[in-house]
Amino acid sequence: MSNIREFFNAYAVASTGGNAEKIAAFYGDSFVVVAPGESRAFRNDEEFLKWLQSVHEFNRQTGLRQMLVQHVTEEPFGGHAIHASVTWGALYEKTGDEAIAFTIHYILQQQASSLRIILYSSEEDQEKAMKEKGLL
User: Fold this and answer.
1) Nearest-CA neighbor of 74 among 25, 107, 43, 49?
2) Do 88 and 70 meet the contact criterion of CB atoms below 8 Å apart?
3) Which DSSP symbol is given to 19?
4) Given a cut of 80, is residue 108 above it in pLDDT?
5) What Cα–Cα distance (Å) separates residue 42 from each residue in 13, 52, 70, 81?
6) What values do phi and psi take at 64, rounded to 5?
7) How far, in Å, are 24, 103, 127 from residue 136 at the CA level?
8) pTM, rounded to two decimals
9) What's the pLDDT tens digit per position in 22-59?
């Protein structure tokens, strides 16, 4: 998949679908997650699949209905990677048609004809934003 927007549109569908293996296919063999006040390294293994299931359960409990790619920028990052910034719109049952926007930065590894997430970094504190919207 060479189009970054198509990659993230497919990732959004997988992310809300609840199939951990489909979501894991978007990630490299190992990767890093960075959020305000924390960072975590993962291997793409059985533990990661369990974590993805817990994320899906959290999203279900908060009423997440859909993730929409609102805006994407991309630029080369080294010889075999791409830095992509994605502004997402999250639609929740409680917020109706009001999308909650947030931006995530990704480093994508280019592998032959595919892309894999090897790092993502969130600008916002997701829990704080969700509390402000009454989702938690």
Assistant:
1) 107
2) yes
3) -
4) yes
5) 22, 11, 27, 19
6) -65, 125
7) 26, 20, 8
8) 0.87
9) 999 999 999 999 988 889 899 999 999 998 899 899 88
